[in-house]
Design goal:
mainly alpha; two-stranded parallel sheet; 72 helices; 72% helix; globular
């Protein structure tokens, strides 16, 4: 042994031994049990440490490769299991401090060399040392080494984040661990000055830079996911904790106070505190100086840091008595920003837009902190502190307004915050604010528009509350009258108009009239006289008129209760507007002008302003006249000529304006596609409304008016160029005019439609269709855009219930849609008038006459002469439809399809999606038939070219079939059978689809094919139901369809020459689907027929027999041709199920499927038994193939309903065993089980209903074996899951007699087993969703079904042991939701079904209920980042369920009163610990209010006396709110309760 010891140790120390050999010896010595050295581990650690230290201290220069191997050896030793086991056993092994020094040195070298390639091993060593307490002492005992390590790691992290390289997790994991260690040490430090010095000297700068880089980093897929989602957030949180504890400790308060307040003020307040030389604020400011980081990042890092530092400062020191000190800290930190130079008069060109954005964002955050912490008290600042704060904010406002930044959202938000602090801060510069932030501001982008509107809304609210709205708008008028910026933006956007409306509704009417009079007077005296030829004055006029429009349209209307002086003032104002503004402007526009003058900008703007004000005046004047009988319109004084009044000329509408002059105005304004043209349309619409209000209607005038409105925008709509419109009339431009015009037409379609020609109806339908076709491409963008677009308007009409009511438009729209389908056809066939689509879209057929006939009012004298003609006209469309129908059938039989290319198919699909937007069930008979024929023609008369995408073709076919089904659901669906024989439809359809199947041989396994087959099945089912229900030659049609299907089989009829081997499997599947559907429909109607209808029974039976025989042949062939050991084709399962149902549902008739002593014919029984055996075999290996499982279980349900069908020596137990095996399969999850729960229950109902008592006992033994706890010990979790699921399913089945007794006799054993399983499963979080949640659901079901049966309270109270075991914290959101629902259901089952047990086991119930409520409060607490909205919705549902349970307890359990105080006490204790999200708190508080209803006065006194001080205050607030809101509301409800 001595030789081994001396040999290895000497060789390790010897200079002659090569380093390669030394490392081999060291590795051998560490892992070998044969090498015995006294204190071997420590010796080897010392050796490697000494070697590395010597190298870095330059005593021994080693090669880089050797150094890396030494580091790797040290890393292996630190992370070795041997070392960990030694340390656990209590043996002392340590490292020297020099190891920490060389690690720090190595990291420093890596930072200076800007390469991090070879430091992975060093980082791994650091991680191992820090995570091992006995080794980490080399850092924790010497804090400066840990600080140095943290500084180096932070700098390395900054270097990695600043580079373009992918971010790895190793460095950040070590950094997070180092932060955690340092924070632990920092809390133990007793000298705050030393901690402050250490943080500011070494950590402040790298930490701030690191936080900034983590915040602004654009994470990519190459970056490590753990760093992006977790470590970055955690490290930022640790940095904040470090700065809070290092810079702003309570012990440093006096230092901050002394530095921030003046010496005299500090001396008055500190009363003998020790003088200190520490200047913390100055130190922090210095560290934020130029050496913080490289110049390119400096501004951004400082801007992001000052708000953080101020927040941490306020968190530590913000109290009411310290608000002045907090303000001085604000001013000092603001001094670190570059904005402070501008406040002192610096140049603004030193800041680029990006810098402005960051600086303003920092300022916004600072001001937000001031506002939220109530730092600025106006009275205190003025009385005690000589307005020091006001002066600072005043300079800030001046700086912001001097250097306007209307393109940056934060600029508006800063001004809004200053207004919120004190409006007097900004009021001296109110005109500049209104100009730069509103009237002349170019804030067109959505990101700046919203904060701008918020700022102006704040101004509105402040001046509205102060009742100084006239003062505000006096300034607005002043700004408007300043020299106008060319093309000044609209004064009131749609958003601002809504804000103005809210304020106007609160203002006294006289103040609003003051503002209006002010604007009218200024317009009359200053603008109107000088508007001609002046662009500046025209822009001012437009702004003034838009303000007048906004006020008049949004103020409260006068009515009969309005005081007379207000009505008189309003009349006077309206007269002034008419005489002083509209009349002079009309005269100006009536003047004759040369062509070149008509296009001048001033004239265009003057025209816009004049028409806007004129329309506003007319609309408001009409409203006032209707709503207020005291109001006398100014127009009442003007005489109207009899001719004008009779023919509704302009002078009847606008007295004082002559017709010939008005035509000039219309001609002028009609040439501008802007506000004036739109207002002209509005005036015409207003004229129509006024005409309709008369007793006698001038039809011709109405038609002219409606035609004018449509014609006005026709030319601009035809260009196809438009942009979004926000709804502001005064902001309509040439590009937004088409949108505004279309909005007006669509919004008033119910007024316009009765008075427009059929040609105009077709025009509207055409535009509607064209815009919808464009909308398909723009749909994604439209959802995110709040403004109005043409596509949005059209979609709105299509989705509304109004379009089906407008039958003429509906019909015209369908005609244009069919025409578009016809245009899709290839050019060669498009001109053929014989094709169905061409015939259905011809314009000379009166498709609409059926609609107009029902609306026509015919003179009685003309009835006899016109009746015959009218009938002929109406029948023309039906004759055309009949002709088209025959054409479709003929083309299908002759096999002459139109070949479509992929692009044409895509266009078809787009048009079909538009068809799907229509309400197909509301079509009239002729339109329903037309649409049916179009879809049928697409299915049977078109084919895809060979090169087409199969998935696209399947999607087109599926969509056509889906739309046909929607048509069949309508009330006029049978109208199709007027023009087509049902069998012809079915035959043409199946012929085309079987032919198309040759394309689909390679897509039979994808979901789109399954969806297509499903659509085929549902279409056939609906159509066959319609034939039978409406008695449309049932026997003839069904026999013809069946004969056709039989002829399609390759072994019969005309198809005998086709070999089965070459038969297309897709066609076979489709044919089988048709047979199955026919069989299913006939069987279903046979079952539903009353016994009296023997004739119908005979007819259906005669049809069913050959169908069944054909199905048997098809199924048998399919099963025979199926490859051995291959799973059954899914398509066969529903066919066999339907076949079996047909056999079982057939009435007992002679010579039909029954033999004298037998059940079914033996070959048929054998088929079913073989199929049953195959299903049972494949059930367990089906995995999560949900479609197969559901269909297989449906077959088993029918099969098990007839016990005689079981093969010999097989019983129902075999089925249950197969189901148990299926449920314990590896691919089966709780989601899969939920998806097939209904089918599983139906199978078990049949199995248990027909099995013997012995069979049921065997099933129970099977279940109890699965519930044995050894299964979970042996890691057979799925075995347990299968048994738990079977238990739950058994509870869903009716159990009576001996079976019921057997089950409930075993129920205590089941509950006990479930409790043991829960206890074991809760130790592994992975089993929560697999076992625990299903167990909770099963226990809840057991308790509900056991009401009145589980009489032993002990058995019920076993459920509480399960509830108290289940974890409710630190779970994934979906797991938490599942566990919560389970626990809630168990508790609710006990409360509802076992109230007596509840009262006896009250402590257990209270504990369980408290855990449930506390978990919701924990999950529903307020967080900075709310996270996923879906997750929050889950928490909200949980809170609602708690409220529901509290409500139930309060309503139904009067005996529970004695325990109500405990629930309230537990709730308020938890409430003191967390800040709940308001939505969650609302639900929980409502629930606790109901529990408080149970509390008597003694309980309230007990709670008030016994609760701890902090909790008592929470309870006091809760009880006050309870009395104020809930109790008062309850009394109010009781008052009106019978």
């Amino acid at each position: 042994m001595a030789a081994i010891y001396s040999g290895i140790y000497l060789k390790l120390k010897s200079a002659k031994t090569s380093w390669e050999d030394k490392l081999k010896l060291a590795r051998f010595a560490w892992i070998s049990h044969q090498c015995v050295l006294p204190n071997k581990e420590q010796v080897l650690l010392d050796w490697v440490s000494q070697a590395l230290v010597s190298n870095y201290n330059k005593k021994h220069e080693l090669e880089d490769e050797v150094v890396e191997k030494l580091w790797a050896y040290l890393d292996n030793v630190i992370h070795s299991k041997r070392l960990q086991d030694l340390l656990k056993s209590g043996k002392t092994v340590g490292l020297s401090f020099s190891v920490a020094e060389i690690i720090n040195k190595r990291l420093s070298e890596a930072y200076s060399e800007e390469t991090q390639q070879n430091i992975g091993t060093v980082l791994s060593c650091s991680s191992g040392i820090l995570s091992t307490p006995s080794l980490s002492i080399i850092y924790t005992a010497k804090c400066e080494l840990l600080v140095d390590l943290l500084s180096k790691l932070s700098k390395l992290a900054c270097q990695q984040l600043a580079s373009d390289n992918a971010v790895g997790s190793q460095l950040f994991s070590v950094l997070q661990l180092t932060f955690a260690q340092y924070l632990l040490i920092q809390r133990q430090q007793t000298n705050p000055n030393r901690v402050f010095g250490r943080v500011t000297s070494h950590l402040l700068q790298p930490c701030l830079l690191l936080r900034h880089l983590l915040t602004v980093r654009n994470w990519t897929q190459a970056d490590d996911n753990h760093v992006c989602q977790h470590l970055s957030k955690e490290i930022r949180s640790q940095i904040e904790t470090l700065l809070q504890a290092g810079l702003f400790q309570p012990q440093l308060f006096s230092s901050y106070k002394e530095e921030l307040l003046s010496e005299q003020e500090a001396q008055e307040k500190k009363k003998g505190a020790l003088k200190t030389l520490l200047l913390p604020v100055n130190t922090v400011q210095t560290k934020l100086g130029s050496d913080l980081c490289e110049p390119a990042l400096h501004g951004a890092v400082v801007a992001g840091s000052v708000s953080l530092l101020y927040k941490l400062f306020l968190d530590s020191y913000c109290k009411a008595e310290n608000h002045l000190m907090c303000f001085h800290m604000l001013s000092r930190l603001f001094g670190c920003l570059r904005l402070s130079d501008l406040q002192e008069g610096g140049r603004s060109d030193t800041l680029f837009p990006v810098n402005w954005s960051m600086e303003l964002l920092a300022l916004e955050q600072l001001l937000n902190l001031v506002l939220s912490n109530d730092i600025y008290n106006v009275a205190s600042d003025r009385i005690r502190h000589k307005e020091v704060q006001f002066g600072f904010y005043r300079k800030l406002a001046q700086m912001l307004l001097t250097h306007s930044q209307a393109s940056i959202p934060a600029w508006f938000r800063c001004l809004k915050l200053l207004m919120s602090l004190n409006h007097l801060i900004v009021e001296p510069d109110l005109d500049d604010l209104l100009s730069s932030a509103w009237i002349d501001a170019e804030a067109s982008e959505p990101r700046t528009k919203k904060p701008q509107e918020t700022l102006i809304n704040t101004i509105f609210q402040i001046y509205s509350k102060l009742r100084q709205f006239p003062r505000l708008f006096e300034e607005v008028l002043t700004v408007i009258c300043w020299p106008a910026v060319e093309l000044r933006p609209s004064v009131f956007s749609a958003g601002l108009t809504a804000k103005l409306r809210e304020c106007l509704l609160e203002l006294p009417p006289n103040q609003i009239l003051d503002i209006l009079c002010l604007f009218v007077e200024k317009c009359q005296t200053l603008i109107i006289p000088a508007v001609e030829g002046s662009i500046d004055m025209a822009l001012k006029l437009m702004s003034v008129c838009s303000v007048l429009h906004a006020f008049l349209f949004n103020m409260r209307s006068i009515d009969d209760v309005t005081p007379s002086p207000v009505v008189l003032r309003t009349q006077h104002l309206m007269a002034n507007i008419q005489k002083g503004i509209t009349q002079p402007l009309m005269e100006l526009l009536q003047a004759p002008r040369r062509e070149e003058e008509k296009s001048e900008l001033w004239l265009r703007k003057a025209s816009d302003a004049a028409l806007l004000l004129l329309y506003t005046w007319v609309e408001v004047d009409t409203l006032f006249g209707v709503s207020c009988s005291k109001y006398v319109s100014p127009t009442a004084e003007t005489a109207v000529t009899e001719h004008a009044a009779r023919h509704w000329g302009i002078s009847a509408f606008l007295p004082g304006v002559k017709d010939q002059y008005w035509r000039r105005v219309m001609e002028l304004t009609g040439s501008f596609a802007s506000t004036s043209k739109y207002c002209l349309e509005l005036l015409t619409l207003q004229k129509m409304k006024m005409m309709l209000m008369q007793t006698e209607v001038d039809l011709q005038a109405l038609q002219h008016a409606a035609a004018f409105i449509l014609e006005s925008g026709r030319s601009t709509m035809s260009r196809g160029e438009s942009e979004l419109w926000d709804g502001d009339i005064s902001a309509i431009t040439e590009l937004s005019y088409p949108t505004a015009h279309w909005h007006l037409v669509m919004s008033n379609l119910t007024i316009l439609l009765p008075y427009i020609s059929l040609k105009d109806v077709e025009y509207i339908a055409n535009v509607l269709l064209e815009t919808l076709m464009l909308a398909e491409a723009q749909e994604a963008a439209m959802d995110q855009e709040p403004s109005i677009s043409i596509a949005k308007i059209s979609l709105g009409l299509i989705h509304s219930s109004l379009l089906p009511e407008m039958r003429v438009l509906h019909c015209a729209f369908l005609t244009h849609l069919i025409h578009q389908f016809a245009m899709v056809l290839p050019t060669a066939t498009r001109d053929s008038v014989d094709l169905p689509l061409q015939q259905l879209s011809v314009t000379n057929i009166p498709w609409h006459e059926e609609i107009l006939a029902s609306c026509k009012t015919v003179d009685p004298l003309e009835v006899s002469s016109e009746n015959k003609v009218q009938k002929d006209e109406l029948s023309l469309s039906w004759k055309t439809l009949e002709k088209v129908a025959q054409c479709i059938v003929l083309l299908a039989k002759n096999g002459c399809p139109v070949i479509l290319k992929e692009r044409q198919l895509q266009r078809c699909l787009g048009l079909l999606e538009i068809v799907s937007l229509l309400k197909l069930d509301s079509f009239l008979p002729s339109d329903c038939t037309r649409c049916f024929l179009v879809l049928l023609s697409l299915l049977v008369n078109t084919r895809a070219s060979v090169s087409c995408c199969r998935l696209l073709l399947l999607k087109v076919l599926s969509t056509c079939l889906h739309l046909l089904r929607c048509l069949q659901a309508g009330r006029n669906s049978s109208s199709v059978l007027k023009v087509l024989h049902a069998s012809d439809v079915l035959e043409a359809f199946m012929t085309s689809q079987l032919t198309a199947c040759k394309f689909f041989t390679d897509v039979l396994t994808i979901p789109v094919w399954a969806q297509y087959v499903q659509e085929v099945q549902e279409f056939l089912e609906n159509f066959l139901h319609m034939i039978i229900e409406r008695r449309q030659s049932v026997k003839l049609n069904l026999e013809k369809f069946m004969s056709f299907l039989v002829s399609c089989r390759p072994d019969t009829g005309a198809a005998k020459s086709i070999d089965w081997k070459n038969w297309n499997p897709a066609a076979e599947q489709l044919l089988l689907t048709a047979f199955t559907t026919l069989c299913h429909v006939v069987t279903l109607h046979l079952q539903q027929l009353p016994e009296k209808k023997l004739h119908s029974v005979d007819v259906l039976c005669a049809l069913l027999e050959p169908v069944v025989l054909q199905m048997v042949r098809t199924v048998e062939h399919g099963l025979q041709s199926n490859t051995p050991n291959q799973p059954l084709p899914v398509a066969f399962i529903p066919s066999v199920t339907t076949l079996l149902k047909a056999d079982l549902s057939h009435p007992v008739k002679k010579d039909w499927q029954k033999e004298p002593g037998g059940f079914l014919k033996w070959p048929r029984i054998k088929l079913y038994q073989e199929f049953y055996s195959q299903i049972l075999k494949e059930l367990s290996s089906a995995g999560s193939n949900l479609q197969f499982l559901q269909l297989a279980l449906q077959f088993l349900t029918v099969f098990c309903s007839v016990p005689e069908l079981y093969p010999e020596k097989e019983t129902a137990v075999m089925v249950v065993f197969a189901i148990k095996k299926l449920l314990s399969g590896p691919a089966i999850t709780t989601q899969v089980i939920r998806s097939m729960e209904m089918e599983l229950t139906e199978v078990l109902v049949q199995v248990l209903g027909n099995c013997s008592a012995e069979g049921f006992y065997a099933i129970m033994r099977l279940v109890l074996q699965g519930l044995e706890v050894r299964n979970i010990w042996q890691q057979k979790a799925k075995e347990v899951l299968s048994a738990v699921t079977l238990t739950k399913l058994l509870l869903s089945c009716p159990l009576s007699g001996d079976k019921g007794k057997a089950f409930w006799f075993a129920s205590p054993q089941i509950i006990t087993a479930l409790a043991l399983q829960t206890k074991e499963a809760c130790q592994d979080q992975a089993l929560i969703s697999i076992i625990v949640i299903p167990i909770l659901e099963t226990v809840a079901a057991l308790l509900r079904r056991g009401e009145g049966i589980l009489v032993n309270p002990h058995h019920v109270s076993l459920a509480f042991s399960i509830l108290l075991t289940v974890p409710l914290y630190h779970l994934k959101t979906e797991d938490y939701h599942g566990v919560f629902l389970g626990v809630h259901e168990v508790l609710f089952s006990i409360v509802q079904c076992h109230p007596k047990v509840l009262l006896k086991a009250a402590p257990s119930f209270l504990s369980s209920f408290h855990r449930l409520v506390a978990s919701v409060m924990h999950e529903g607490r307020q967080k900075g980042d709310r996270g996923n909205m879906d997750e929050f919705e889950m928490i909200l549902k949980c809170a609602h369920l708690v409220e529901r349970m509290c409500t139930y307890i309060a309503a139904e359990m009067e005996d529970f009163t004695v325990f109500s105080a405990f629930i309230v006490a537990q709730y308020v204790t938890e409430l003191q610990k967390v800040t709940l999200h308001p939505a969650v708190k609302t639900h929980l508080t409502e629930g606790i209010y109901h529990i408080l209803d149970l509390c008597i006065e003694r309980d309230i006194k007990f709670l008030s006396a016994s609760l701890p001080a902090g909790v008592r205050q929470v309870f006091k607030d809760l009880y006050n709110d309870y009395n104020h809101y809930h109790k008062a509301k309850k009394r109010g409800e009781e008052k009106y309760t019978a």
